[in-house]
Amino acid sequence: MTDLATHQAKLDGYLARFRDTGVLNQIGGEARPAVSGATFDNHSPVDESFICRVARSGAEDVDVAARAAKAAYPAWRDLPATERKAILHRIADGIVARAEEIALCECWDTGQAYRFMSKAALRGAENFRFFADRALSARDGQALPSPTLMNITTRVPIGPVGVITPWNTPFMLSTWKIAPALAAGCTVVHKPAEFSPVTARILMEIAEESGLPPGVWNLVNGFGEDAGKALTEHPDIKAIAFVGESRTGSMIMKQGAETLKRVHFELGGKNPVMVFEDADLDRALDAAIFMIYSLNGERCTSSSRLLIQDSVADGFLEKLAARVRNIRVGNPLDPATEVGPLIHKTHFDKVCSYFDKARAEGAEIAVGGRRAGDLGWFVQPTLFTGASNDMAIAQEEIFGPVLTAIRFKDEDEAMQIANDIPYGLTGYVWTNDLTRALRITDRLEAGMIWVNSENVRHLPTPFGGVKASGIGRDGGDWSFEFYMEQKHIGLATGQHHIPRLGA
Ligand code: NAD
């Protein structure tokens, strides 16, 4: 059998049980349908075939889940950190043991290519291991002595939290949010994206099989406007960790205002990759291609705006176009595939609308710009050239395998174009001029910047964006800052003077 046929056969085995039972919620350690009994159908973007029914939850399901998380909270908070650490490591072991199942299900559910999903599943395990080890120091604080007091700080978990995740690499992103919350001592209600529910259910099963007590982590499926909204409004949920679109973040902020929710937002991006004439152009080309055409371009950190210096633009764009034409579009289960289908028809329509916009705005479609095939939500890897930064194709997050190339004369113009955008998630700078790199990293409005590199994630570093790309940071200790409260304790060291009123 070919690799594709082997993967297809294994996938059929893994999905069989979902075809029978559907994807249920998991609340207080029990698999449950929605209270109303409602479901929705989940289809694969590869061939639009039916995968499974999914519980369509509403406010009543969220309420049961939030109460389960609240009930489980004191015991989880008070569990010795060494025990939390051990459970989280067992979850990581469970993920590794089921990595192939997770990867194949993720491919079929989201359209993401196997070559990337096999790594994303293992990266999910790494996230659990990283935060498992940090659980031991989560409550550490400082000693800040003053003349009369020994001031100490400590951190305590904030309480039950809501985690709302999107459909792009949903498994990895769920682990990225949930692992630090659990390590901090919070309990969780997770609402995964409606377009990609399968691996969130597998992850939940692994967690409970690993000894996570019932109610510590609850899974509620459903749509954003009902289950998601109810979670953001629930009074027992103390904070919302959200990954998704900028406009949804804005809605969540409004929804959470009544109950004064703490929010952490990882939102959209339209990230520049700036290529200067003195750069290693071959490496810059590889990185620019990887950062926009991997993960189907459905990647918040994608380098979706190529800013290329005039003096080297012609040669660079010619090589780029040849490589983009060569990208292998196909079945995501095939290990040779580089780009799979977009998640859903709605998103496919959105991405395709930019092909018309590019033409209308006067840009050139140098490569692609069409649907690929006639079954499933595939688009051709696309390159727009001759673009200016005021065009919609340069300003809006397309979130597909679509790159907009813009030329610049000099560093000042490159900086001006790079920052002239509502978003500020990442930036990529290619230059061998050290002082230029320092000037640019200082002025670029982005939460994360890589110089002469693609995005290489290092878990202790802060992850997040500025402007419309987000609020707050994940990674290292920054995750604990979100899931925990600082507490100050002042202990008198002697008999200092206390003002005596009414004496
Ligand atoms: P989305 O905002 O449409 O949905 C994300 C989640 O929010 C889903 O679970 C959805 O059901 C839920 N939701 C929708 N409306 C809601 C509401 N009113 N209240 C509560 N929840 C609601 O995003 P998407 O289309 O699933 O994901 C793609 C977006 O995510 C892109 O913009 C991408 O850049 C962004 N993203 C950002 C990062 C980052 O780290 N900055 C990472 C991955 C994805």
Strand and helix map with partners:
Elements: H1 3-21, E1 25-27, E2 30-32, E3 39-43, E4 50-55, H2 59-78, H3 81-97, H4 99-110, H5 114-134, E5 149-157, E6 161-164, H6 170-184, E7 188-191, H7 198-209, E8 217-219, H8 224-233, E9 239-243, H9 246-257, E10 262-266, E11 272-275, H10 281-293, E12 305-309, H11 310-325, H12 345-361, E13 364-367, E14 382-385, H13 392-395, E15 402-408, H14 411-419, E16 423-424, E17 426-430, H15 434-443, E18 448-451, E19 466-467, E20 470-471, H16 476-483, E21 484-492
Parallel strand pairs: 6-7, 6-9, 7-8, 9-10, 11-12, 11-17, 12-15, 14-15, 17-18
Antiparallel strand pairs: 1-2, 3-4, 5-21, 10-20, 13-14, 16-19
Bound molecules: nicotinamide-adenine-dinucleotide (NAD).
Structure report:
It is a single chain. This protein is α/β, with parallel strands linked by helices and 503 residues long. Helices cover 43% and strands 19% of the residues. It has two domains: 3-267 and 469-484, 3-Layer(aba) Sandwich (Aldehyde Dehydrogenase, Chain A, domain 1), CATH 3.40.605; 272-451, Aldehyde Dehydrogenase, Chain A, domain 2 (3-Layer(aba) Sandwich). It is built from 16 helices and 21 strands. Helix 13 links the parallel strand 14 and strand 15 (402-408). It starts with a helix and ends in an 11-residue tail after the last strand. Bound molecules: nicotinamide-adenine-dinucleotide (NAD).
